[in-house]
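Limitations
The structure tokens in this dataset are predictions for the assembled complex, not deposited experimental models. Users should treat interface geometry with appropriate caution, especially where small molecules or nucleic acid strands are included. An illustrative entry is reproduced here so readers can see what is and is not provided.
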Amino acid sequence: MGSLRLVTILLLLGSPAFAQSPTYGVGRTPTAEEIRRMDISIGPTGEELPPGRGTAKEGAQVFEQKGCIACHGPAGLGGMAPELQSKKGQDVPIWQRERILPLRSPFATTVWDYINRGMPAGNEGTLTANEVYSLTAYLLFLNKVIPEDQVLDQQSLPKVKMPIGDDYAKLHDWKPRTPRLEGYPY
Amino acid sequence: MGSERTSRRELLKGGAALAGGVTLGELASSQAQAHDHPMTPGSQNASPMILGSKELVEYGQRSRYVTSVRIQHPPGGRPSPDLFGKVFHVASPLQDSVGVITPSSLHYVATTRGSYMPDIDPKQHTLTIHGLVDHPLTLTMDDLKRFPSVTRLHFIECAGNRHTPRQKTVQETHGMTSCAEWTGVLLSTLLKECGLKGSATWFVAEGAEEVKGASSMPIAKAMDDCLIAYGMNGEALRPQQGFPVRIIPPGFEGIFHTKYLRRIKVVDRYYMNYNDFGHLREDPKEAALSEQIGPKSVITYPSGGQQLPGRGFYEISGLAWSGGGAIRTVEVSTDGGKKWNLAELKTTPQRMAHVRFGYQWTWDGNATEILSRATDEIGQVQALREQIAQWWNVPVERNYRVPGLDNSVMPWKIAKDGSVTNGLA
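Predicted assembly:
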């Protein structure tokens, strides 16, 4: 018993407190800076958002400069790629309006995340933070989610109230070996 | 050397084989000699020979008479490859499949918005696990292969695998699913190594392709059976399947199986990144149906576009699978759903894997409809479209769209002339 405890203590002492993983000791610990650079997952709180700012007016310019119009059409209408501006009125319930990301998304952070990682097609990952904030503001403005002069940045973007509010399905608490929907046909 | 050749020729002289060898040409003759035994009547190979080549020696090829290929999906939809060389959706030729393993070359392919395949140098690629863990970890592909491995059979199925009245063949109706043997490390092994924090409830899996496709999944799934796979059907993953590494969350819709996996971030809420917006639903019931796949089966022989030569014996053959676990039973009806008969399972059912079923049937030559339905280990039963519509309390129209991934029963019509067509048409 005593010797076992000693072995445990020795093992604990022997386990390196640096750059190694606990059980197998394989791999390395990424630096905080490495993680920050690769972490482009922007969650609803916006805690991962980088510094920067932008408005709809600036976004309209970026939309032209970066060639967004070629696929999405002027002001996000009439292109081959998905349309980005709703043609239905704000009085129409959100689920009866178009499935447009900067309109239907529950979080403005998702719009930022999408543009940042996935646009422009063919040149993904080349936009600056300011350009992404500006484009996000422009698309939210086109869909009447925010006013034209609103500045979007790390603080204001996660606070944007999206028209969907809380009117969307939260995913259920998934459990293994459980029907996907209790009582669903047979 | 010369005398040796002569002695072989003399050996051959004894039989009529020599004449055969000559008429078959130099190739067959030298082949017979190479095997160093005389040809005897009846042992002649009437076919031409396949000349050995460096390529065939190093990495084999199927017979030129086997021509089964993948096709773009849907047939009239967006082409793969498109003008720019991007691939969107490609369906597997299930009508020609045997057993349960889809050859890697025929495995279905899907990309989230049409994308190029990244040409990743595995020496440059790393997988980083971070977020709500005690020790973030960056692994090279060599590092990953040092962890204890598992090898499992799993199907993958695209949410677009939807049978409609317009489709003709089982490749068109059901070809967006495949099953392969995957080798890798359990995500739970890696997460335990990193030390999950108590607040961890979700994780985001992200790929390295140009759009950095990312999906949010429950941490319970990660700890249950998610596989970080680097191997497929006994070799490295193919680029179309995410080389050098992808995640397999068994039984979840295909889009969750992030390819070119570069990052796993453990988080405390649903992150709604990139692919997750596509899963946004108004009705929680529908949302629940677009994650884990329900029990499903389809008859691959006889199926749409095939022709029965006449009345008599046939073994009806098909595939069954479920996102809820292993398949327990498959039933086949040969009279349009009036009577259901227990099918034979041809392979050992495994969790979230295709199982091959068969049902011995003697066709009397009359027009009929054949169907199959699967029940999984947790008791979920594959339903008819009519039953699903009834559950949702909506009329069953010809173009009724089953909510979530369409796992409804697929009917095939057999006409008196033996032609097989889509029973929904």
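Some entries come with short summary sentences. For this one: Chain B touches chain A through 68 residues (CB under 8 Å).
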